[in-house]
Amino acid sequence: MKKEEIPDWKALENLVVMIQKQLSPDAKVQHNVMLEGVESETKRQIDVLVEQDIGQYTMRIVIDCKDYAKPVDVKGVEEFHGLVQDVKAQKGALVCPSGFTKSALNRAKKLQIDLYRPVSTGNHKWKANITAPVLCDFRNSFMSFGISSSDPKPLMIAQEFYKLSVTDEHGSELGNALETAQQKWDQGKLPSEPGEHDAISIFGENNVFIDNGYGDKVKVNLTVRLLVNQNLYLGHLPVEDLNGLQDEHSGEVLTNAFTLGGLNPEEVQDSWKVVEDINKLDFQPLFKIAGFNCYGIGT
Predict the structure, then answer these.
(1) Does the pLDDT of residue 172 top 60, yes or no?
(2) Residue 191: CB partners within 8 Å, gap ≥ 6?
(3) Are 43 and 37 in contact (CB under 8 A)?
(4) Angle at Cα 261 formed by Cα 258 and Cα 266, nearest 5°?
(5) Among candidates 35, 295, 286, which has minimal Cα distance to 185?
(6) How far is CA 53 from the centre of its chain?
(7) What CA–CA distance (Å, rounded) separates 130 from 123?
(8) Which residues contact 26 (CB under 8 A, 6 or more apart)?
(9) What is the pLDDT of residues 235-268, one digit of tens each?
(10) Cβ neighbours of residue 36 under 8 Å, at least 6 residues apart?
(11) Residue 31 above 50 pLDDT?
(12) What are the φ and ψ backbone dihedral angles of 253, each rounded to 5 degrees?
């Protein structure tokens, strides 16, 4: 072994210390601590000690890390329980990447000992390749535009009137109907349920004006009609960064933050499973991601 290399058992302890500091940022997390054994009357070595003051009391949690090739057995759980009692800790937890035997799980549950595996995407011996189940809900809309006016002034309606500059009653620029409608769609401010949505006022109740084709301003009502299609896709996204502990009793992963890989809509549509019935999924998604796209315009 090279001088600069860290033994696996110590690297595991360092990893658990790092994870525990992230999980309990307000607590005092220490590595390789010696505590007095009340019953044994001798110093007891603690891999990871977590302490936090609650009022006038100090909560003490001891964590033992086992870099075993095989799962921890019931004997290992009982020996650790003796350590927890000896140092008068309020809670004890065992961490082993190889897991725990069924008898160890049952015994730990009765002794109220928490059992964990480290879950980390870091560059180390126990690096985990993790993906998150995701449901993508893509809403595509076709927009068609309408215009009406009760203004007595003449109005020459341009073929692409939805691209004309729009102003309010004070002459302030509001953009045009196309850009405003697309912006509202992208922001989720227009109806997105599948189906048809008729005559939606683009600028709300505001009085808006456009050039009437004769060099004058005329009051108009600009509307958009939406035809919305929904496409559902089920797949997995890679988890690029995560540090946590998997509870061996519940299967849940405890972490305070993680980073997902990027989502490529084309890849989703090409390789993810198309969902015909949202009530009949192969697995339950952890996340639902919604995407809004306008695929066409008209009048």
Answers:
(1) yes
(2) 197, 200, 226, 228
(3) yes
(4) 150
(5) 295
(6) 31
(7) 13
(8) 52
(9) 999 999 999 999 999 999 999 999 999 999 999 9
(10) 43, 44, 87
(11) yes
(12) -100, 125
> Looking at the chain, which runs of residues are DSSP E strands?
28-36, 43-54, 57-65, 91-95, 114-120, 130-148, 165-168, 173-176, 195-201, 208-211, 217-247, 253-254, 258-260, 273-275, 287-298
Distance, in Å, from the CA atom of 4 to the CA atom of 87, rounded to the nearest integer, reads 33
118: Cβ–Cβ under 8 A, 6 or more apart, which residues?
12, 15, 16, 19, 95, 97, 126, 244, 245, 246
**65-104 pLDDT per residue, tens:** 999 999 999 999 999 999 999 999 999 999 999 999 999 9
Taking the C-alpha atoms of residue 164 and residue 162, their distance in angstroms, rounded to an integer, is 6
Residue for token pair 């599948």: 194
Q: What is the pTM of this model?
A: 0.74
Structure token pair of residue 261: 């890989």
Asked if 6 contacts 228 with a C-beta cutoff of 8 angstroms, the reply is no
Per-residue pLDDT tens digits for 155-166:
999 889 999 999
| C-alpha separations of 56 from 52, 53, 237 in Å | 11, 7, 46
Give the pair of three-digit tokens for residue 4: 């600069």
- pLDDT tens track for 112-154: 999 999 999 999 999 999 999 999 999 999 999 999 999 999 9
Q: What is the pLDDT of residue 2?
A: 52
Task: Give the type of residue at 4.
Answer: E
